[in-house]
Amino acid sequence: MASAVIFLCFFFFLLCTSHAANDTQANFLNCFLEATGGSSSSPSMIYTPNDTSNFATLYRSSIQNLRFLSSGAETPSFLILPSVAHDAQAAVLCCRLHGVRLRVRSGGHDYEGLSYVSFTSTDEPFAVLDLSGLRSIEVDAADHTAWVGAGATLGEVYYNVAAASPTDGFPAGICSTVGVGGHISGGGIGSLHRKYGLAADNVVDVRMVNAEGELLTRETMGEDLFWAIRGGGAANFGIVVAYKLRLVPVPPKLTVFSVSRTLGQGATRLLNSWQSIAPRLADDLWIRVSVIAIGEAPANRTIQATFQGLFLGPRGATLAAIQKSFPELGVRAEDCNELSWVESTLYFGGHALNNTRALLNRQPAFNSSFKAKSDFVREPISEEAWEGIWKVMMEGEEEPLEMIFEPWGGRHWEIEDDAIAFPHRKGNLYNIQYFMRWFETQTEVTERHLTWMRRLYDYMAPHVSSNPRAAYINYKDIDLGCSTEGRTSYKEASAWGIRYFLRNFDKLAKVKARVDPENYFWNEQGIPPFAAW
Known about the structure:
The chain is an alpha+beta fold. The chain has 17 helices and 18 strands. It has helices at residues 2-17, 23-36, 52-60, 85-97, 154-164, 180-186, 193-196, 218-221, 223-228, 267-277, 315-325, 341-348, 383-395, 411-414, 443-459, 490-501, 504-515; strands at 45-47, 78-81, 101-105, 126-130, 137-140, 145-149, 168-169, 203-209, 215-217, 239-246, 248-249, 254-262, 285-294, 302-311, 336-339, 369-377, 401-407, 430-438.
């Protein structure tokens, strides 16, 4: 049956591409279909734009940022959905052999769309390898580990871990539709990171396809490559098809809370205190802040700061911990909910608490465009400076721009800057994510929003890290620099590489030179081999 399906796919796509595609593309298609014909009883599928209904539906299925669909960026010549690791190997070998570039998509949250579009000025065709079919999750509750396919979402991980063990969790992000592959490879901040470190800190093994099409594990890839793909963006070095995760202990009940304050209710004073207190709280207590301008017109606006928290313990212990460390926040018993760990992921993800199956929904939560940027803060920002920041935020005429403050400290400060490729550890008080979403598709609307975002980012320069002004790779930002020539020099890549990876950038480029010297896994903001032109 499998061979019959492959034959029909092969015949159909040859018909579709015989008139429209060049020899390179036809040869690649032939190579891939032959290489995967006997690999699985559920064979991988491959689509071209000529199959207008299936291609468009599947291509758009996990795209979270719609602005790239109308930006003039190049879309793929092929969409590949592997069902087994062997088919990812075939994709690499056939793509390289026939001059087709390869992009890898897990959940589709890539902030600048580089996992599914191309801004290159060359005419090279490219394929998107969509890993959503590689999302099996095998939890070993006795060993407190889980093998997770890189195409799984965080929500699927949380659901399956909780189903296997109510006292195990995993420290990763709060958005359930984010793909495991990208999130973990860039670091992975979440509500448990002060207690247990990043998602990438808790990876103990991987299965990865390298530029030669070989399937590697930690044992066979070497520790330098295993180091690089935890925080350095795995797609720079190959295709991780599965991660082995170390699960972490969570209590049967923990407590979440949320309180909001406007300027008139002391938001500035509270945030000013938070930035020094939050990184030094007990590891069991995590409090982040979301700040947004509310009100219809600039003259009627104010700032609202929402303090969201999680404590690894019951309500009474939560209130006692806050009263001891941050009493001015004014958290009351009625602001708190006692939940299981998996229910807390629903809470922070905006889902109903009685529907854990919502974590299995892979569909984008919004049909919109967005832009984000990031910063790290190493010294407290003064109250006077906050007042200036609020003024800028309230003057905007576009959609509200949100600032999200994630506290550091705890495990972050204990782990060395070079323990994995993610380098932003000691000395940072917190991370800032600037985030703006809009729903119009016109180019001029997008440009207005981007201009407004860049204005606030420029205004923040005196208050954040410098030399370099650091950034978080999972909040990818092509404003930091990018290449569109299909190749990148080490010097050129330093513009963004040093900001994402600080002193770890050199080592990442040297690992790249060893494992992918021809820079096959190139993208516009990638890591080139150290000895690149």
